[in-house]
Amino acid sequence: MPSRGERPEDGAGPVPAESSTLHKDELSSKIKEQKVVVDELSNLKKNRKVYRQQQNSNIFFLADRTEMLSESKNILDELKKEYQEIENSEKTKIKK
């Protein structure tokens, strides 16, 4: 699975409708998940510790709460932007 920010479909030509819908549903799920993360981090008390999981392992490292919140908001914005692009491309296909 590609990491966040990488989109294998870039430059790959038109995406079939089923694949596009599947990707849209997956993005919608990720957006909901990311909204929960942002909300949880926003509501933490200042003195609470936050840990970040090392990718592909069960190792956790202490992280700065404000940095994690900022990063989570950026990821959410990217996901929303990608979702909006898919919706816009579907609308233009319908108009044609």
TrEMBL record:
Residues 1-10 have a biased composition (Basic and acidic residues). SUPFAM superfamilies: Prefoldin (SSF46579). Coiled coil: none annotated. It comes from the Eukaryota. CDD domains: ASDURF. One of its GO terms (cellular component) is cytosol. Signal peptide: none annotated. Residues 1-29 are annotated as: Disordered. Gene3D superfamilies: 1.10.287.370. This is ASNSD1 upstream reading frame. It comes from Ovis ammon polii.
